[in-house]
What does this fold into?
Amino acid sequence: MTKRLLIGVALAAVVLFAAAWGLAPIFAGQALIKAAKAGDARKLEQLVDFPALRASLKDELNHELARRMSRDPRVAESGLGGLGMMLAPMILSGAIDTAVTPEVIAQMVTTAEAPDPTRRSPPEPGDARDDKDIHQAWGYRDLNHFAVTLTDRDHPDQHLALILERRGLFRWQLAAVDLGAEAE
It folds into this structure.
């Protein structure tokens, strides 16, 4: 009987550990969304790895900018198009470094849109859409990356995936975005 009890307790402990390990990113994602909607900058600073997020945004926006510039015939035909493609990442980098703040993260979560680094003023709290307009899809990308894909119901073809990365066994932080994410 003692052996069965020990096996039962050990099995229950393993199941509880696995459940906590698997559900941790969901709780972190919910905390991120709740803090963003409440405008809790202090909580957002704990839930976001800002250097990693800035690097991810730079990569995503530079890729998008290069894609758009290569499609634009005015840029392709112009001799200055190449210069613009060289200078744009540097300008974009500086803008992202100063623009990505807890307030901008809150704006991303509530509007399902990437930040606009050319915007000079901080986002207004009234700019947020109704919570019911944002569809959320949750899912693992791999064991250490979890995506919360946000889609504005008014623009169902545009998705913004917030990528949470594992930091230890149970801690997760927003560390990247995927602007071209497919809905889960």
Remarks:
- Residues 108 and 115 are 7 Å apart (CA to CA).
- The chain has six helices and four strands.
